[in-house]
């Protein structure tokens, strides 16, 4: 026969305990010393009382155990709202329930601390600038932050490292620095790979940090120091040169010399003055690198800003392919200057080939992405595009793109230039955060 369960064993033990009393009552009934009706009435009452006591004993034992089982089940399901009643008549059960409630409180506090810590970690991971990817043992992506979404695009969760183009980074050396293009963003990246265990299985964590911006900021600061030093020294020299040239011009005009000599001296002094003025303007333009103010951010409608910038230069008919109505968080004056600079470069390139210029915008990874496409000859070399003072245009100062990218990055955005793939020409891509 199958073994009896716990409840039936309690009932059986209780019945065995009352059998002697029931047997004694039966023997008394059979002895014939008392009237039969009285004896059987007593036997019936005794047996009935014993049965009631047995059932009551069973409930007294089983009910607290069921309560105990329910509380433990709730704790296992991480439901700490169910409490055990501590007012049992048995001191032992009361102590047991009190300890169980104390255990539930301790686990609840620990669970709450773990949940709050996990929420803090998730918030930090989401907001951190570095791209963070967590891969399971099968190299499937199970976690990424906002910066990671911008790098690989969405949806990405559940895809393999091979599909995302990150397999070689997971298998490569760590830490390492690479130069690579993610989407439309080209730069230098610091790559770190580490491991962690979850439910006994080894997972891998890939962290990709863009160090291009930090390097560019150091570069800009270095150029600013150079400009300040050179500007100070040259201005100290230009002022007396222009003053002396002016004074000599007045002396030559009053001097009693041959007209031909006077004309030669006048032309020479005018050249000195013009070159001194040009050098002063040259230094004033470069000093913009050292005087770039912090942006004053507010919500700005993107479409009207682009339309105003387009209407400022009518050398080429610029086609506007309207995108969605977007609001960006920006300094309107600074961003308008960036768009003007990019349009000017695009129009200059288009004039060389007789091509056109197109401006459009869209939403990409929580950013407004403005694209300015020209039909010029394209970029021969992108290596020096953002190097201060470097220019391929006659009369160019070489700071337009540098200042534009500096403004974009001060807004938390990016600026990139690349050759078009559909035809000859260049595409400038400006990304800026959307207004919340």
What does this protein look like?
The protein is α+β, with helices and mostly antiparallel strands. Helix content is 54%, strand content 19%. The chain is built from eleven helices and twelve strands. It has a five-stranded antiparallel beta sheet. A five-stranded mixed beta sheet has the order 7-9-10-12-11. A two-stranded antiparallel ribbon has the order 6-8. It is rod-shaped, with a radius of gyration of 43 Å. The mean pLDDT is 78.
Distinctive features:
54% helix, alpha+beta, 436 residues, single chain, five-stranded mixed sheet, five-stranded antiparallel sheet, 12 strands
Can you lay out the helices and strands and say which pair or pack?
Layout: H1 6-31, H2 36-76, H3 91-127, E1 131-135, E2 141-144, H4 146-152, H5 161-164, H6 167-171, E3 176-182, E4 185-198, E5 201-210, H7 212-254, H8 259-286, E6 298-301, H9 302-311, E7 318-321, E8 327-330, H10 332-353, E9 357-364, E10 367-374, H11 400-410, E11 414-419, E12 426-433
Parallel strand pairs: 7-9
Antiparallel strand pairs: 1-2, 1-5, 3-4, 4-5, 6-8, 9-10, 10-12, 11-12
Helix pairs in contact: 1-2, 2-3, 7-8, 9-10, 10-11
């Amino acid at each position: 026969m199958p073994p009896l369960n716990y409840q039936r064993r309690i009932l059986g033990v209780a019945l065995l305990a009352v059998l002697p009393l029931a047997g004694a009552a039966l023997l008394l009934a059979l002895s014939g010393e008392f009237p039969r009706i009285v004896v059987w009435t007593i036997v019936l009452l005794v047996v009935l009382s014993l049965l009631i006591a047995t059932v009551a004993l069973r409930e007294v034992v089983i009910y607290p155990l069921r309560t105990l089982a329910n509380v433990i089940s709730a704790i296992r399901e991480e439901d700490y709202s169910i409490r055990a009643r501590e007012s049992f008549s048995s001191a032992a059960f009361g102590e047991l329930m009190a300890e169980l409630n104390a255990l539930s409180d301790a686990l609840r506090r620990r669970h709450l601390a773990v949940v709050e810590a996990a929420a803090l970690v998730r918030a930090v991971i989401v907001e951190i600038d570095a791209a963070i990817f967590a891969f399971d043992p099968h190299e499937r992506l199970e976690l990424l932050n906002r910066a990671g979404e911008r790098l690989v695009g969405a949806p990405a969760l559940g895809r393999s490292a091979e599909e995302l183009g990150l397999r070689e980074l997971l298998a490569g050396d760590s830490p390492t620095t690479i130069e690579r293009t993610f989407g439309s963003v080209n730069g230098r990246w610091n790559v770190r790979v580490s491991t962690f265990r979850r439910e006994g299985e080894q997972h891998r964590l890939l962290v990709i940090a863009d160090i291009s911006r930090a390097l560019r900021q150091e570069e800009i600061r270095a150029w600013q120091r150079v400009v300040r030093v050179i500007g100070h020294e040259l201005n100290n020299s230009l002022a007396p040169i222009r003053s002396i040239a002016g004074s000599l011009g007045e002396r030559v005009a009053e001097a009693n010399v041959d007209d031909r000599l006077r004309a030669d001296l006048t032309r020479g002094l005018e050249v000195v003055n013009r070159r001194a003025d040009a050098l002063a303007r040259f230094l004033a333009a470069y000093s913009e690198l050292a005087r770039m103010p912090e942006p004053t951010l507010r919500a700005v409608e993107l479409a009207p800003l682009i339309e105003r910038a387009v209407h400022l230069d009518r050398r080429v008919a610029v086609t506007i392919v309207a995108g969605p109505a977007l609001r960006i968080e920006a300094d309107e004056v600074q961003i308008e200057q960036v768009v003007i600079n990019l349009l000017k470069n695009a129009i200059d390139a288009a004039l060389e080939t007789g091509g056109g210029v197109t401006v459009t915008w869209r939403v990409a990874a929580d950013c407004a992405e403005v694209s300015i496409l020209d039909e010029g000859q394209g970029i021969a070399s992108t290596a020096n595009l953002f190097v201060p003072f470097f220019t391929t245009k006659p009369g160019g100062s070489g700071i337009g793109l540098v200042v534009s990218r500096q403004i974009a990055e001060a807004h938390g955005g990016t600026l990139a230039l690349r050759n078009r793939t559909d035809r000859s020409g260049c595409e400038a891509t400006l990304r800026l955060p959307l207004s919340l």
